[in-house]
Specification:
This protein is α+β, with helices and mostly antiparallel strands. It has one domain: GTP cyclohydrolase I, C-terminal domain/NADPH-dependent 7-cyano-7-deazaguanine reductase, N-terminal domain (GTP Cyclohydrolase I, domain 2), CATH 3.30.1130.10. Helices cover 40% and strands 22% of the residues. The chain has a five-stranded mixed beta sheet, with helices on both faces. A two-stranded antiparallel sheet has the order 1-4. It is elongated and about 65 Å long. It starts with 11 loop residues before the first helix and ends in an 11-residue tail after the last helix.
Length: 218
């Protein structure tokens, strides 16, 4: 399993462009959903679909709530009274629900997050929330893996970080090539998790040593 993950953070020009672009109103978003329903061949005014545009917009607000949260803030509160604890901290099997940025269909799986503290630790619920914030954006799995690990490294400054994500992509299980049962595995190892084979081996052993030969589609 390797760590060659492309960091898909927006460039400065992209960030400026996004901040200058105003978000469409709810009525505009609902009108767009009506258009898609009509394009699919149905009548948005029939009884069963009359409330669908509003429901879809409400669902999108929930699916993509991560755009409105700062992941770094989640890790801002740390604890230094650790009784000199210097062993690995791992949170495994974190339920993962995201959406593929290429087809806006679900990515479902689990994330495993570990770090080797350097005097500071963070509440374990914050690690799960960090995964959730990044997952609630349109993503590719490689970028999601990298963003989680890099944020932990930048904010907590531990000796090392390891993140592994195992997920199924419905863009290839329900459409296109239609290959159900396929799991994509991505990893990001930083610091001692990358440089120390024993640390890496311990982390992979704790999370169950997921196979590195699985693949997905983007």
């Amino acid at each position: 399993m390797d760590t060659s993950v492309v960091d898909k953070q927006p460039t400065e020009s992209e960030t400026t462009s996004m901040s200058m672009r105003s978000r469409p109103t709810q009525s505009e978003a609902e009108a767009a959903v009506r258009t898609l329903i009509e394009w699919a061949g149905d009548n948005p005014d029939r009884e069963g679909l009359r409330g669908t545009p509003e429901r879809v917009v409400r669902a999108y607000r929930e699916f993509f709530a991560g755009y409105d949260e700062d992941p770094g803030v989640l890790l801002a509160k740390t604890f230094e009274e650790t009784s000199a604890y210097d062993e690995m901290i791992v949170l495994r099997d974190i339920r993962l629900e995201s959406h593929c940025e290429h087809h806006i269909v679900p990515i479902l799986g689990k994330a495993h997050v570990g770090y080797l503290p350097a005097g500071r630790v963070v509440g374990i619920s914050k690690l799960a929330r960090l995964v959730e914030v990044f997952a609630k954006r349109m993503q590719i799995q490689e970028a999601l893996t990298s963003q989680i690990a890099d944020t932990i490294q930048e904010v907590l400054n531990p000796h090392g970080v390891g993140v592994v994500i195992e997920a199924a992509h419905q863009c290839m299980t329900t459409r296109g090539i239609r290959k159900p049962g396929v799991t994509m595995v991505t990893s990001r190892m930083l610091g001692s998790f990358r440089n120390d084979p024993d640390t890496r081996r311990e982390f992979l052993s704790i999370i169950g040593n997921p196979r590195s030969d699985s693949s997905g589609a983007r």
